[in-house]
């Protein structure tokens, strides 16, 4: 303000700039109070309308910039106070302390917000005044499914995928939401109808995502074939790991519940992006049926998917039966979103199974297994 008034030619520009900075702390009306004095001075000293019009335009342009760009960025990114909270705080502090309250409204509101962020008993202040989401992503998805709004839950999934990978979204959003639903259902806080709707909705969301993924992979395959002649060297170098992964036969088994089946679908979908041959078994099959249907000659890795709250117990039971029936098959036990100590979980599962707690870890371990599997095969062939 001071620089602009100086360039325009208004006397005492530095004084008006300092005054505008001080009055800026008064929300909404403070800047215009600061503008009245230099505008009035320009009217008094100017023989025409040019100086006055330039002074008015200066304040209008600065206010448009501050109100639409700078202040929303400052309040939202730096202080975390929402615009509505600033307006309501200005009314409250003015009613409480008069003009002095209006002057101190913004800094006092920021102080109250900081207290709400750091004092658990006053966390409601952060919800009322802040710009942070009320729910964490996984709780938001669960809340939408609990309300019967599968469409919005799917939109939340898509918005998360805009800035996160599919593995991250499954690990940090869908699996925790699924675990919350399963825990509430087993505790009796969620009735059978709601539980069935949530499970079915998640299956449909996964199926929709799988269809899109298959379309994307098919389009990419066509693109690779079309550019094979132009990038022959790159194609040959890429065929080696792809051929290894495509030869991997992976079976994803649910430990017991329908929630386990959904996480097995997630794992199969993630592994499918690597080119592995993956099959996810439905939970409608009994444990004995699943075990008997396995052909050890055509399966390299068996993944057991288990969701809390009883993940360890269910996974251990199935892994032990699989190890007795197929001692040579590699086992991976996925204890998704498990809060316990992974070392203790490894001891409890036993059976020589590799225990993981996230889809990302499962993907990493299986890729490592694919390398060790083929290195062993190469050694046998060379001997």
Q: How does the SSE layout of this entry go?
A:
Blueprint: H1 2-8, H2 13-23, H3 30-45, H4 50-79, H5 83-97, H6 99-118, H7 123-129, H8 137-146, H9 150-161, H10 166-186, H11 192-226, H12 232-247, E1 249-254, H13 258-272, E2 277-280, H14 287-293, E3 301-307, H15 311-325, E4 330-336, H16 342-349, E5 354-356, H17 359-382
Parallel strand pairs: 1-2, 1-3, 3-4, 4-5
Helix pairs in contact: 1-2, 2-3, 3-4, 5-6, 6-7, 8-9, 8-10, 10-11, 10-13, 11-13
Walkthrough of the structure:
This protein has 383 residues and is an alpha/beta fold. The protein folds into three domains: 2-129, no CATH class; 138-220, Orthogonal Bundle (Methyltransferase, Methionine Synthase (B12-binding Domains), Chain A, domain 1), CATH 1.10.1240.10; 243-382, Cobalamin-binding domain (Rossmann fold, 3-Layer(aba) Sandwich), CATH 3.40.50.280. The protein is 70% helix and 7% strand. The chain is built from 17 helices and five strands. The chain has a five-stranded parallel β-sheet, sandwiched between helices. Helix 13 (258-272) links the parallel strand 1 (249-254) and strand 2. Helix 3 (30-45) runs antiparallel to helix 4 (50-79). The longest helix has 35 residues, at 192-226. The relative contact order is 0.06.
């Amino acid at each position: 303000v001071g620089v602009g008034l100086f360039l325009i030619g208004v006397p005492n520009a530095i004084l008006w700039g300092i005054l505008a900075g001080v009055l800026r702390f008064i929300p909404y009306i403070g800047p215009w109070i600061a503008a009245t004095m230099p505008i009035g001075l320009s009217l008094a000293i100017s023989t025409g309308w040019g100086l006055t019009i330039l002074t008015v335009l200066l304040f209008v342009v600065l206010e448009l910039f501050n109100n639409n760009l700078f202040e929303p960025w400052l309040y939202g990114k730096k202080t975390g106070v929402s615009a509505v909270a600033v307006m309501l705080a200005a009314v409250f502090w003015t009613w409480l302390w008069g003009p002095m309250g209006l002057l101190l409204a913004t800094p006092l509101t920021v102080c109250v917000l900081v207290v709400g962020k750091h004092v658990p008993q006053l966390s409601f202040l952060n919800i009322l005044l802040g710009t942070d989401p009320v729910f964490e992503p996984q709780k938001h998805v669960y809340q939408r499914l609990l309300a019967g709004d599968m469409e919005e839950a799917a939109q939340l999934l898509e918005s998360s995928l805009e800035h996160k990978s599919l593995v991250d979204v499954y690990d940090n959003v869908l699996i925790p939401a699924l675990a919350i639903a399963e825990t509430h259902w087993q505790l009796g806080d969620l009735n059978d109808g709601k539980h069935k709707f949530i499970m079915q909705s998640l299956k449909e969301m996964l199926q929709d995502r799988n269809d899109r993924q298959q379309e994307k992979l098919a389009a990419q395959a066509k693109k690779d074939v079309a550019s094979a002649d132009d990038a022959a060297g790159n194609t040959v170098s890429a065929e080696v790991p792809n051929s290894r992964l495509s030869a991997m036969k992976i079976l994803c088994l649910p430990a017991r519940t329908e929630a386990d089946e959904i996480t097995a679908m997630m794992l199969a979908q993630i592994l499918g992006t690597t080119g592995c041959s993956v099959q996810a078994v439905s939970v409608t099959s009994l444990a004995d049926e699943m075990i008997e249907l396995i052909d050890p000659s055509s399966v390299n890795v068996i993944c057991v998917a288990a969701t809390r709250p009883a993940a360890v117990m269910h996974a251990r039971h199935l892994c032990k039966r699989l190890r007795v029936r197929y001692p040579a098959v590699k086992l991976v036990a996925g204890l998704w979103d498990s809060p316990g100590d992974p070392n203790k979980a490894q001891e409890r599962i036993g059976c020589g199974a590799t225990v993981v707690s996230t889809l990302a870890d499962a993907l990493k371990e299986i890729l490592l297994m694919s390398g060790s599997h083929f290195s062993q095969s190469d050694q046998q062939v060379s001997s």
